[in-house]
Amino acid sequence: MRYASITSRLADLGSGKWTLHVRARQLKASGADIIELTIGEPDLPPDPALLEECQRAMNAGRYRYSNGRGEPAVVAALTEKYRRRRSGVTKENILCFPGTQTALFAVMFGLAEAGDGVLVGDPLYATYEGVIRSTGAHPVFVPLNPQHGFHMQAEDLEKAVTPECRVLLLNTPHNPTGAVLTPEEIAAIGAVARRHDLWIVCDEVYEELVFDAAFASPFDNPDLAERTVVVSSISKSHAATGFRSGWAVGPAEFTERLLPISETMLFGQQPFIADMTAYALTHEIGTARQMRESYSHRARLTIDGLAGVPGVSVLPPEAGMFALIDVSGTSLSGEAFAWALLEEEGVAVMPGSSFGDTARNFLRVSLTVPDDVIEEACRRIAALALRCTACRERRA
Ligand SMILES: Cc1ncc(COP(=O)(O)O)c(C=O)c1O
């Protein structure tokens, strides 16, 4: 049978990046002692008040068809949230989606097509290449340098731009590196976007999980208002990944043009999820604060746990739920180290190569497990690193 070309374009961009994770799950199911540090799933449950609100809404009959833009209460809550960040935001700027991922997919379909280039930092979140390629556009990678803490530099962006580029896909705070762009970096990046008339799509799903740095966004810069679209959700901020509740916020003309795409694909969001999201956005909920505290503490435990271990060093994350470990000093690639770590020490981490070429010498570890598990994982990582070093010295 014949298939549309999108199936070939995405064939290698789906579950292939998760091969090690799948293998770890198989080993675990067969009884092996595996520490799993692969996925970014918050380890807290959502606040009980959110579950109650969902239940209340369902009992009140809030399970019928919605509309493409979003239920009035959640649209009002989002308008308020983003008006606090930039004046003049109205409900015409908001579109609700089932999660950031769907928002990204729809937004990219509205902005890019075959022949277009989409600029994106490398390393990058695992689904971005698929999102870009599904439209027929191609990614144009902007290397993010560990020497700059993986912060995108305007000069590197300028060097990467080609005449086909239409969109810059930004991610701050960044997965997998935990980098948080500064207002100055955003202003410089924004100047490049203006010069080349690029849209800026900014994925801010980790906005609430910034440790000590200050969050900044192109959305908050009035000079970039006409070209910036934010995508985000309550997945990480409220430990509510499975509820699938997100949004896009952009210029009114943009949301109006996107609305038919959203309606064609989704036919609206579930009203009971919308009510719960409106509740989450308008009440003081402590989940993000708790996660910020435990993830920054566990990042510190990882740094301390691997301090002085030959061949490995931890890049301190500024935000999010992951830490990157540079293993280049062990003379193994991130991929080889990650597989050896699983087979020999029973620790599952993501090879940096799952997030692009620039991260090939890194491992990404998830900080969403208890402190003592992080400490044990560090002991096992250190044991493998020591064996690698001893082996290298014997060969030398
Ligand atoms: C950078 C980034 N964007 C988007 C997502 C998906 O978010 P959502 O659950 O809102 O679809 C993730 C999930 O890990 C992520 O890390």
TrEMBL record:
Entry keywords, A to Z: Aminotransferase, Pyridoxal phosphate, Transferase
The keyword Nucleotide-binding belongs to this UniProt entry's keyword annotation: no
Tagged with keyword Transferase: yes
Protein name as it appears in the record: aspartate transaminase
Family: Belongs to the class-I pyridoxal-phosphate-dependent aminotransferase family.
Required cofactor(s): pyridoxal 5'-phosphate
Recorded catalytic activity of this chain's protein: L-aspartate + 2-oxoglutarate = oxaloacetate + L-glutamate
Pfam families membership: Aminotran_1_2
InterPro entries: Aminotransferase_I/II_large, AspAT/PAT-like, PyrdxlP-dep_Trfase, PyrdxlP-dep_Trfase_major, PyrdxlP-dep_Trfase_small
EC number, UniProt record: 2.6.1.1
Database matches in Gene3D superfamilies: Aspartate Aminotransferase, domain 1, Type I PLP-dependent aspartate aminotransferase-like (Major domain)
GO molecular function annotation: transaminase activity
UniProt domain Aminotransferase class I/classII large: residue ranges: 33-381
